[in-house]
Amino acid sequence: MLQTRICSFESDPRGFVRATMSRGAELEGRDAREALESTWAVAGDQRTRVLVDMRLIRSETREAQQEFVSDYSATVCSAVGILIGSPVSRVIGNFFLRLNKHQVPTKLFNDGDAAVSWLLTNDP
Which burial class, exposed, middle or buried, applies to 26 when counting CB atoms under 10 A from its CB (0-12, 13-18, 19+)? Predict the structure, then answer.
């Protein structure tokens, strides 16, 4: 398990990395890069599926969004399921999904079980 300023990362035995944003996280570009580096480390330096729980997030900068759709992100992540719940996370998630070109399958979910099922159907 790894902890950054805004997120915790752990390997799930089913074959993906779970990234959980801290309550009130205000995600900036440097945080996004650190999140990708932490995901890579937790996955054992190999490409992986990622479940991002951003239900408690407060904000995300455009710079952070660009980092999450970068070539480096596609090297780290093979698929990304994003858990949303609060009105804020829903707006941020929809904005991120619709206004960025994603290099890997990326989908929003309200339900954790549905997100995991979807992730497990995407090869790492």
Answer: middle
